[in-house]
Amino acid sequence: MGIRFTVLSSGSTGNATVVANESATVLIDAGLSARRIDELMKERDLSGEQIDAILVTHEHSDHIKGLGAVARKYNIPIYANEKTWEELDKSIGKIADENRVIMETGEALDFGTLRVESFGISHDAAEPVAYSFYDGDEKLSVATDLGYMSDKVKEAIADSDVLVLESNHDIEMLRMGKYPWNIKRRILSDVGHLSNEAAGEAMSELLTAKTKRTYLAHLSRDHNMMDLAKMTVRGTMEDRGCFFKDTEFKLCDTYYDRPTPWDKVGDS
């Protein structure tokens, strides 16, 4: 079977992704209401009873809005590092002791044959992380809310078959947008969000013959558009000497209001 996944929702209004193989099904973040997460999972023939674990990237509301409710409803263990748990305890309500699991940054855990590795990222949260998943030779990495693409992050997600990678904003749209300057400055900072251009620069270094697809994720609804993100990422890659055919490597969409189709990491 290998690894398969669906991005249930991606963006500033809420984030949730399901990753599964033949032995485990995990949810990355629960940034929408429990009811909405149930609806999105149902669209992909999933239910909460099938989720073995919830992996938390960080404590911002668009990643944990429904976390407590989902975990309690389906009795699912939550995995997060200690500093993130200190913040979660302030906002998600009572969680049974047996469902409070500390997974420190850099730790690797096995859920049956699905291996999960966390790695630190730069964002204005207590101790934010992203995750890579392994099953045999297959590798999927899910990395959003990146202030910048550090060498350590590049190393962590290198040689992924498929990436879910932040492409949050168009820099000029953000600069000309309605947000107050302090918010713009935060987004543009090294603890903010990755721009389309920065995503393209990163992909120009990360693309190898092994890389099949990159899903552009966590797009701003006010300061980006999917077609613009894909055009900018591709253009930036080509400007840096990285050319490809769609049959060899593909940039894929994510959505804030509907899940992506199931994708098998091993498919070409």
UniProtKB/TrEMBL annotation:
Entry-linked SUPFAM superfamilies: Metallo-hydrolase/oxidoreductase
Metallo-beta-lactamase domain boundaries: 13-218
Highest rank taxon of the organism: Bacteria
Catalyzed reactions per annotation: 3',5'-cyclic CMP + H2O = CMP + H(+); 3',5'-cyclic UMP + H2O = UMP + H(+)
InterPro entries: Metallo-B-lactamas (IPR001279), RibonucZ/Hydroxyglut_hydro (IPR036866), WalJ/YycJ-like (IPR052533)
Cross-referenced Pfam families: Lactamase_B_2
Free-text function comment from the UniProt entry: Counteracts the endogenous Pycsar antiviral defense system. Phosphodiesterase that enables metal-dependent hydrolysis of host cyclic nucleotide Pycsar defense signals such as cCMP and cUMP.
Protein name stated in the entry: Phosphoribosyl 1,2-cyclic phosphodiesterase
